[in-house]
Amino acid sequence: MDAIAILTGGGPAPGMNTVVGSVAKTFLKQGYRVIGLHGGYSGLFNPSPKTTDIDFLLADDIFNRGGSYLTMSRFKPTDKNFEEDFNLDFFVKNNVKLLVTVGGDDTASTANRIAKFLEAKKYPIANIHVPKTIDNDLPLPAGSPTFGYQSAKDMGSIIARTVYMDARTSANWFVVAAMGRSAGHLAFGIGTACHYPMIVIPEMFNKTTITVEKIVNLVVSSILKRKVMGIDYGAAIISEGVFHSLSDEEIKKSGIHFSYDDHGHPELGKVSKAHIFNEMLEKKLKELGLKVKSRPVEIGYEVRCQTPVAYDLVYCSLLGMGVYKLFSEGKTGCMVYADPAGQISPLYLKDLQDPETGKIPPRLVDINSDKFTQVINNLLNYITPDDYAAAQKYVANPTDYDFRKILNW
User: Fold this and answer.
1) Which residues contact 43 (CB under 8 A, 6 or more apart)?
2) C-alpha dihedral over 338, 342, 346, 348, to 10 degrees?
3) Domain ranges across the chain
4) Known catalytic residue: 135?
């Protein structure tokens, strides 16, 4: 019997099980055996990989659940792993015709390496990747979201709007940090959904070097503006990605010493970014003599394994079924893509990768779009030149907290 193998890599995103379950149901219907690989890519470089045969009942049990039934890993194979450890016997003995990989940017980059490796070695195994990430930073065409983003944004918004209600009720401020390693989509989406008066994402610093002081001053700008408006509460949401844009010197100023993962990324999940930002803000407010209470809230792991919302249940089902469509058409070395109209097509990894690094570049928030500028111009609250006179009641130098001057816009 012909078989396919499927694995999930990187970190969780709502819809992982939906993709796996939909892929399984579709291929089972076509007479294939479906083998689930545990441990992400590590299973492909292990002489005794942990596997589970996925039958209809298992697929039907997991497809609408959060998390990932197939255990995940951030394992990144080296060139030596490819040459010495690649488990071709697994594919040969199980008659595997297709490897389905489900993951984000790093998983996509590794899938690209595997596709090239299989092609160079003339191994008759197709490879199709299903892109996911709650960060929404894979460069899919037509602004299509990566699966998991909508569900994470939904849960993040539930948390954030509850926090905002607390701020209004208790007349204080909250500093919320949201996931987003390279791009600010999640923080921007949550902040927009909840009408937060300040949103800080790395893309905003396109005309100036990002520093700890500028991040803090943007939040202070919002606090001052609301004081001018006669409002004594609010919340600011900051994307964790700003840490990736800080220089080593600026990171040292934050007082945090990061460890790094296999891909060279600071392990931001090990520290509370909200706590760090809030401490910085409290120190600044004390220096300014502003009596404002602020509290930190982290939106991180809470949103990665939540039950997928209907959008992702439909979207991920379509992607899962789309894997078979592409495979039946002889496609390989590609990602499955569903456009906004629901049409399935291949998106080749080689066409998305950076020609020098071979990695998939992140999709950033388009700060020139109406979607972004309308929020900045109409929802956020911050100091402008028109507020200088009124703001002097609270600070001697309101120009230092002019939103556009801070960003050099």
Assistant:
1) 7, 37, 49, 50, 51, 87
2) -30
3) 3-147+308-352, 152-303+379-407
4) yes
pLDDT score of 317: 98
Angle at 42 between CA 10 and CA 129, to 5 degrees: 50
Q: How far apart are CA 133 and CA 102, in angstroms?
A: 10
With the CA atoms of 342, 348, 349 and 352 taken in that order, what torsion angle do they form, in degrees rounded to the nearest 10? Answer: -80
For residues 53 and 381, give the distance between their C-alpha atoms in angstroms, rounded to a whole number. Answer: 54
Considering all CA atoms of the chain, what is the largest pairwise distance in Å, rounded to the nearest integer? Answer: 78
Name the nearest CA neighbour of 184 among 244, 268, 130, 132: 244
Give me the amino acid identity at 199. I
Which of 105, 106, 135, 312 is the catalytic position? 135
Contacts of 280 (CB under 8 A, 6+ apart): 212, 215, 216, 254
State both tokens at 90: 């697994």
Number of H helices, E strands in the chain: 16, 11
Strand partners, 200: 238
Q: For domain 152-303+379-407, say whether CATH 3.30.2320.30 is its number.
A: no
Give the global pTM.
0.90
List 394's β-bridge partners, or say none.
none
H or E segment and range at residue 214: helix 212-228
C-alpha pair distances (Å), 376 with each of 84, 97, 201: 53, 50, 12
Q: What is the pLDDT of residue 272?
A: 82
Q: How far apart are alpha carbons 149 and 132 in whole angstroms?
A: 8
Task: Kindly list the averaged pLDDT for each block of 10 residues, start to end, along the chain of length 409.
Answer: 94 96 98 96 90 98 96 89 89 92 80 79 86 89 91 97 97 94 93 98 95 94 97 96 79 68 64 86 93 93 94 97 97 91 89 76 92 97 97 95 97
Neighbours of 125 (CB within 10 A): 19
- CATH code, 3-147+308-352: 3.40.50.450
Residue 119 has a pLDDT of 78
H/E stretch holding 97? strand 96-103
| Domains 3-147+308-352 and 152-303+379-407 fall in the same CATH topology | yes
pLDDT of residue 79: 87
Residue ranges of alpha helices (H) inside 85-148 are 88-93, 105-120
CA distance 343 to 322: 9
